[in-house]
Amino acid sequence: MTPSHTDPLPRFPFEAATALEPPAEWAEFREKCPVARVALASGDEAALITRYDDVKTVLSDPRFTRPSAGDNAARVADTESGGVFNSEMAAVLPQHGEAHLKWRRLLGKWFTAKRMAALRPGMAAMAEQLVDEMVAKGAPGDLKAGLAFPLPVWVICDMLGVPDTDRDRFAHWSDVMLSMTRYTQAEFDAAQAEFGRYMGGHIAGKRAEPGEDILSALIAEGVDWSDAMLTATGIGLLIAGHETTANMIAKMVAMLLADRSRWEQLLADPSLVRTAVEESLRVDANAGVGMQRYITEDFEVGGTVLPGGTTAMCSMAAANRDERAFEDAGAMDLTRSPNPHLAFGAGAHACLGQPLARTELQVVLEVLLRKLPALELAVPADELRRVEGLAVGGLRELPVRW
Fold it and tell me: Which N-terminal residues, if any, form the signal peptide (predicted)?
C-alpha cells in the first residue's frame, strides 16, 4: 500500500461512488497502511491517519497544533483561498495553550446541558414551523433547504443576538469561508472583510445596548477581549454553528431513509433518537477532509515516525469505521451504546458546540418522526449528490416526499 518513491502518491481525499458510501480506500489504508503518505489536491504531501487509536492520539497530543501562517504546512488544495483555516479569524483566536483553554472555558458556559435543555422548546417550535411551511408547498420538497439549513442558522443567530433576517448573507459568507476550492483569494478576502465589518458593527451595537446573548454577556463580564477577538469569536460561532450542523441534519435523515427499516425502527421506538443521532455521526461517510494537524518534532504514531514539519490529516470518518474500536463497524446500529465516535474530534480542539449540534439533531429527528411518519426519499439514495469543494461534507439537496 505504501507507494515507492517513484510511484505517484495516492490523492486525498478519496472519491466515493455515492454520497452516503465510504471510499473503499478507508478500509484498505486502515488495514495495510494506517499512517500513509498521500498527496493533497494541492500536490503537497501529508501523512494520512485512519485508525481510531492513532487519530485519537494525534488529536489529543498538544505537540500537534493547527497549522499557522509561519508553518510550512501542506495546503489542502492549490486553488484554495485557505478558507477559514488561513483566515484573520484563525490568526486572532488563541489556537493552543492556556489562552486557548481560557477562551473555551468562557464560551463553554453557553453550551451546558442546562442551557441546551432550555433551548429545546424553541428549537422544536421552529422545526415544526419549518416542516409546516415545507408541507404547505407540497411534495416533493427539499429537506435541506426547507429545514436542515434554516434551523441551525435561526438557533445560532438567536444565541448571538443577530437578526436572522440576515441569514442569507451569513450563509454566503460561511460558504465562502468553508470552501477549499470553489472561490478565489479575492472572493474570500471580500467575504471575510464584509463579515468582519458586519460583526464589528454588531458588537458596537451590543456595547451600546446589551441583549440576552453570548456577545453581550462576554462584554458585560468585562472580558478583556479586543473588538477583533469578539468579532472573530462571533464569526467563528456563526460559521461553526450552522454549516456543519445543517449538512449533518440532511445526511442523518438521508441515512435513516436510505434503508427504510431504520426509519420504521425509530417510529416503533422513538426513545432510540439519542443513540440514532450518535450512530449517524459515527457512520457519516461524507464528513469532509478531516482535521489538519502540524508537528514540529519527530513523533511516532501507528509504528511510524513522523518527522518534524509533517502535516497530518486525521480522517475521523475513517477512524469511526475501525473494527478495532467498534464491533461490526460498517453496520448502522441505531441501538449502539456506548458510542465513543470521533465525529467531533478529540482533545483540546474537540468541537466546542457539540452539545448544541446534538440537541439540534435530536430535536429535528423527534419533530420529523412525529409530524411526517410517512417521510421517504424522493430519489434513489445512490442518486443523492454531494457538495464538492467544501471543508465539511454535505448533500446538495435532500429530495423527500411524505
Answer: none
